[in-house]
Amino acid sequence: MPVRPAVSWSSTLRLPKSSFPPRPLLADQGKYLKRCTDDLYEWQSHERSAQKPFVLHDGPPYANGSLHIGHALNKILKDIICRVKIQDGRRVVYVPGWDCHGLPIEIKALEQQRGNDSTGERQLDAVGVRAAARELATTTVKQQKKGFREWGVMGDWDKAWKTMDKSFEIKQLRVFQEMAKRGLIFRRFKPVYWSPSSRTALAEAELEYNEQHVSTAAYVKFSITEIPEKLRAKLGELKNIHAIVWTTTPWTLPANRAIAIHNELECSILKSGSDHFLVASSRVDAIKEACFAEVPLEIVVKSILGRELQGTKYINTLRGKKSQPQPLIHADFVSADSGSGIVHMAPGHGMDDYEVCTGLGIEAVAPVNDLGCFTESAFPDDPSALAGQPVLSGGSQAVLGILNDKVLATHKYKHKYPYDWRTKLPTIIRATEQWFADVGNVKENALRSLSDVKFIPDAGKSRLESFVKSRSEWCISRQRAWGVPIPALYNEDGVAVLTDESVAHIIATIEKRGIDAWWTDSPIEPAWIAPGLKGTYLRGKDTMDVWFDSGSSWTQTSGQADVYLEGTDQHRGWFQSSLLTHASASGNTYAPFKTLITHGFTLDQKGKKMSKSIGNVIAPGQIMDGSLLPPAKVKKKSSGPISQALGADALRLWAASSDYTRDVVVGQSVLSFNHTALLKYRMTIKMLLGSMHESARTAPRSKLDEIALLQLKNVMSEVKTAYDNYEFHKGVNAINKWIASDLSAFYLEAMKDRLYCGDGGGVLENIFIGLMKMLAPITPNLVEESWAHRPEWMTAEDQDHPGRRPFFEPITSPSSSTDQTIFTPALLRFLSITNTAVKSAQEEARAKKLIGSSLESSVLLSLPPGVQGYYDQLSDELASIFVVSKIEVIPYNEEPTNAVAWKFPAEVTWGDDAASQPWKLWVVPAEEYKCPRCWRFVAPVENELCGRCEEVVGDVK
């Protein structure tokens, strides 16, 4: 054969060609975003309109501020679920919602109004407050909606609901009406959590607890004035007897109406000077140390049971000169674990105190106003002594000052204390007239309805159940203007009217006149009075708890929602209020949700909760624009810095790759890992797009192709299982592992020669479609962009979009020459561990600078009989699979001849199978010449083409 002159063979190669950019062109992202959100949602709604829907009911975000990273985690997880269900062939219904009422919005609106008032004198009435709050909420909803849509969250945005919508408010009022009809709504004067900083009652769900709160605690003596006859006989002539109580809230002492002790508690009487003191026997030493460290103290009566003290009375001097003796009573909750073992009871300022005292006919009083300041009735003998004094700042000291010598000791006490979760300031417990929902009568039904609910994670069930079990009443009234009014009327005596007829009439009037008319109409406007009511009635000004608002949102769906998904804090919030209102008013025995999913909080890289005050907050936009990442390395020819912005997909991949069932860390290391993975996706997709040829459909399929299809089938099955179980991070991990090992390092590496230099066959189209399906729920913008850059021959076919096709489709093999059943796990194991050993030995040769490309080497295998069969099944393709120029088998347990210039061995074992024989392989130099076209060392003559390349290119003149 004549020797050809040197020729450039690049024009004969099928090198990858694709318009797909290695990094997203941000100018194009808008059109891709629309296609994978609005267009996809509209398509599935129309095409599957006759199907039973999959409903993901939105837990409404609060419309009072900028979006944060917690919003991103929540909304993206919801969107992934919807996209997975579309791949299952379902019709998805996701209608976003917003929680728009409540104190934070009202306060923020008022602050903005004050900021716009240069004189600082403008005072808004209820109508003005509502107008300002509505404007703020409306603006915030628009801003948040824009942000959600930029994250690739699809939904029925045109039908998005808000709790301030008239239609929503009417449905909420009808839920209230149904509960009232069933006798589950009542009004009562009783203690509730009260926020002086917000001037309203709060529910348990609106509290957060400060573990570092410090109170002034005090030991105070009450003079006993009456002792039962039986006990008097036992005590003899003892005089000047005082009961010692210990309290961490001395400001509640003006409301004291009893002291309590447990019937079975053993008490003692101590003597100091001419005074005697009653305390629990087990607390004697503690009392000595706290109150009598400097004076003599002796025990004069060792043992008196609490039941013997029943009938004893004492005087609370704070009630004034006309005060009457008050009782010593039994209370189950009293113990001798702290203090004196004798408890001061203020039924107007304590939940337990109230239950015990009202059961005995003891009245509850709370001489504290809405601002948290004492009223004149706090100390009748000198009304000005306490009136106006804030109870939380100086109130305790003022009370102790009046008590003077009745205070035995004081000290600072650090303990857990309830704070208003909005203002971050301490609350008090204060008896006021409030509206309550009776939870006790419905919670058993509510708990039973959870038996058919799937919880993710499982611990969510016990957490939700514990919150429901601990409740008996729910304070649903708030003393603010921005909300849905409690539809009650009050007669001239202040007695509330709440009947089915009166509520129905009020709802009908709101439908006609609008909800603001409740505040704008004259106080005695007759249009609000139901027919049949005689006399003058005023409308109440209380509004409903915002948890009642959002808890009524199940009325926005028809039937049971398939999924509720929110943060773990909603077990005591929205999950619970939804469950309770549904059990109270729907008439159904099932929960409002079939599956309840909770996610954790977002933490910084050090595991700390994100906070603006700490300065560790990461905004979603910073993840999208890549500003948190180190600068990209700039190539010498680059005209400027490389943008790190990967758009919404970067944010979505972070959310999807997080194990959301626990608290989620977000920081530079996590984001860098996901950034690299996303760039790897793009690089892989660019390779696939540039290497897919229409001719591959009719080219014969190799064993390597069949292995790649089997690996694709396996990873898609693993990913689908993860997606179906809502374990998206496991799906992402499976995709990353498959791309790195099976696709990039194995198949694409082994296929390069065939793609560039051979017939261009293979199964890249199947792999591309499979990868698109796996990525579609996670990175939809990337999938849309990839699909837009598919080869022209695919575009001409008008194939269905991968995101709209069933996840699993049969992978047909019309040109397959291999039965996939031969690829047993053992055969694939042989292939994997042998390939790893070859690569290891090649690295040793490469380190010695004996080879560069792996094609510069060949492989010698010394196989035991039990393994020889695996080689025989793959022998015709093994060299191309391992990307070496030649593979040869030598007898088992023999060494290569000394004729080779160098050799690098590797030992191979099955690993866990101890019965299998190990075998050895050697990487050695390639024997023949390098083909100048394909670079394999299989040419018979230097500078000549190998036989395969000769056949492909023909004669070159």
UniProtKB/TrEMBL annotation:
Residues 38-664 form the Aminoacyl-tRNA synthetase class Ia domain. SUPFAM superfamilies: Anticodon-binding domain of a subclass of class I aminoacyl-tRNA synthetases, Nucleotidylyl transferase, ValRS/IleRS/LeuRS editing domain. Signal peptide: none annotated. The keyword Nucleus does not apply. Keywords: Aminoacyl-tRNA synthetase, ATP-binding, Ligase, Nucleotide-binding, Protein biosynthesis. The keyword Protein biosynthesis applies. It is found in: Mitochondrion. Its EC number is 6.1.1.5. It comes from the Eukaryota. GO terms for molecular function: aminoacyl-tRNA deacylase activity; ATP binding; isoleucine-tRNA ligase activity; tRNA binding. One of its GO terms (biological process) is isoleucyl-tRNA aminoacylation. GO terms for cellular component: mitochondrion. Belongs to the class-I aminoacyl-tRNA synthetase family. This is Isoleucine--tRNA ligase, mitochondrial.
